[in-house]
Write a structure and sequence with these properties.
By secondary structure, the chain is mostly beta strands. It has helices spanning 226-242, 245-258; strands at 31-38, 69-75, 83-89, 98-107, 112-117, 122-127, 131-136, 139-141, 156-157, 165-172, 175-179, 181-182, 185-192, 200-208, 214-220, 262-267, 269-273, 280-281, 287-293, 302-308, 313-318, 331-337, 342-343. The chain contains 2 helices and 23 strands.
Length: 344
């Protein structure tokens, strides 16, 4: 899935390129013009009746979307020889888990190939030390109902390009094959109204009371190892189990320092714009608003703002609870009943 999510913010943007293996150093450098990338599954309870969505919440598997683009880095020990280029997914990739991407032929650098998704969030600039730059905006956009022809029609709302991931790439002739790893967690805001008011939602906004969710950052690409993202996931899982915030941030900051993480957080809110749906009717059955967010988000109090088609809003304040932390590759469920104000 091409992804235009939001991430960054304060410390945890580290994950932004926490790529999945070691860099692909080769004795005999090769020229490559295509890559195959496989998307990962999402763990945990999706919050649907069965448990799992596009992304396919029905199967727990991420899916590519038409027009998806990857930023491919060929990294050399001499950063002046490193290069970055956009590779585009083949036609007809919507709904599949593994897709073929092509672009201009790239010579493999001494440190190997690295990939980041989405290309729209990555700069082609590579600075001293092989420092790369990334940014995350404040809006995710619902485009079309990915479940229109299923039993979930009109129920699940998300930006089909909202996944954020990265990978290192081992060269396999005649192209490169790699598995992307998650960087964001998946916040599933479940909204219903047992009064059956029939009010129509236009957007859902999550605002973190403490951590930046949007902004820009840079990292030293060769410093990233497969253990980084795995460790970030483990940190979140451990925090969710025991709630030790000090341990979480101590280890997170250590890893951020090691990869040369430099942040410039700008905002605390991320909005899922559903205006293309012409209003999402809220009734006695949950509607699901899926929003990928940076690791470590929602550790403290946060607010869910519901904006209706008539311009009115409803703010729901959610008190701090360790179960809401955003963990790479995991679902986090926030359930709201507008009739009772009940939050789960």
């Amino acid at each position: 899935m091409k992804k235009v999510s939001q991430i960054i913010g304060m410390m945890s943007m580290v994950a932004l390129l926490a790529i999945g293996a070691t860099s692909c150093k080769k004795d005999n450098a090769k020229a490559v013009a295509s890559f195959d990338f496989t998307l990962p599954a999402i763990e945990g309870e999706s919050g649907l009746d069965e448990s799992k969505a596009y992304i396919d919440m029905i199967a727990g598997q991420m899916r590519w979307y038409e027009g998806d683009e990857m930023m491919i880095y060929s990294i050399d020990q001499d950063y002046t020889k490193s290069k970055a280029a956009v590779f585009t997914g083949e036609a007809g990739i919507t709904g599949i888990a593994q897709a073929h991407f092509t672009g201009s032929t790239m010579q493999e650098g001494s440190e190997g190939f690295f990939a980041f998704y989405p290309a729209s969030k990555a700069s082609t600039e590579i600075a001293e030390g092989n420092r790369a730059y990334f940014n995350v905006g404040e809006t995710q956009t619902f485009v079309t109902d990915l479940f229109a022809n299923t039993a979930r029609a009109g129920m699940i709302f998300m930006d089909p390009t909202s996944f954020v991931g990265a990978a290192t790439c081992d060269v396999i002739e005649p192209n490169v094959v790699a598995n992307l790893q998650h960087i964001f967690g998946y916040i599933n805001v479940r909204v219903k109204d047992t009064r059956n008011s029939g009010k129509k939602l236009n957007s859902v906004t999550i605002t973190d009371s403490n951590m930046h969710l949007t902004g820009s950052m840079s990292i030293l690409i060769p410093a990233l190892k497969s253990a980084d993202l795995d460790a970030m996931k483990t940190l979140g899982v451990n925090y969710k189990a025991n709630g030790n915030a000090d341990a979480y941030w101590t280890e997170m900051n250590n890893r951020l320092h090691e990869i040369g993480y430099m942040p410039n957080g700008t905002g605390y809110s991320v909005t899922l714009d559903c205006s293309a749906a012409n209003g999402v009717t809220i009734n006695n059955s949950y509607k699901f608003f899926l929003m990928p967010l940076r690791p470590g988000a929602l550790m403290d109090n946060f607010t869910v703002t519901l904006t209706y088609t008539d311009g009115t809003t409803r703010e729901v304040n959610v008190p701090a609870d360790k179960r809401y932390i955003s963990i790479p590759g995991y679902y986090t469920n926030v359930s709201i009943d507008l009739a009772t104000g009940l939050i789960q």
